[in-house]
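Hey team,

Sharing the Reverse transcriptase domain-containing protein run so nobody has to redo it. Sequence (270 residues) first:
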Amino acid sequence: MREECLTVRPILAGVPQGSIIGPFLFNIFTNDIPKELKKTDLAFDADDVAVVSQSFSDKEAAKSLEASLSKISGWYSDWQMSLNISKTTTTLFTRKQMKMQPQICLNGEKIKWESSSSYLGVTLDSIISWRNNIEKTCQKATTKLAALYPLLRTKSMPMRSKVRTITAIIRPTVTYASPVWSGCKQEYRKPLQKLQNKALWIATGAPCFARTADIRRDLGVEMLDDHLRKLNMKFYKGLDQKENPLIKKHADISLNPFDRYPQPITALTM
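Structure output:
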């Protein structure tokens, strides 16, 4: 049957998908992508590429970005890969009031400007407030909590199993990439704590007069900020051991509680 359905054909471009060594082959295939780009940094994860340019002038940043995109586009063409320009966006991260953004083109097509961009499941808004990212995180966690509602409300399920379900499914969704965004305003993090509290209330079926602090204490579930603090310390302490140059670049972080815009490790550990 297999001999009739399958035929052997040469692969002239790309990497076969679905194989065990597929990810390894893809890393080899993309190893020679241009990385030495002038005044720009390249973040590459599977088929998601982010190019970052920094400058005091938005025009200079756009010029460097366009030059780097041209080199990357040439590499894609050489290896018969196509760039999806319709999914390519540009976001200007600044606290200045900009009347007009400089135009950036790729292969003769204009790249659209967006007030926020999403990369690896994290939403980055133009002023890095993380408000949009947390709102989307709440939506994802709420959807999962609704799916788990019948399971958490059943009386036949042991309470220990309910708590493990919450800490294994709901909390990882809430804390995804938290070392990056957890330095945001506390008022932005409050909906995440309320969501965790709601999950505990559903699991326990506690009466309306019960205190949330007592429920957390009885179940042995810590406050979300306390959990974020542990995640941050574990993440930042291991930064200097990473091989990725972009990560090592940000490994030297000082704990300064008087920073105007504190790093997440500062905001939640002091």
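The longest strand covers residues 40-45.

Ping me if you want the raw files.
A.
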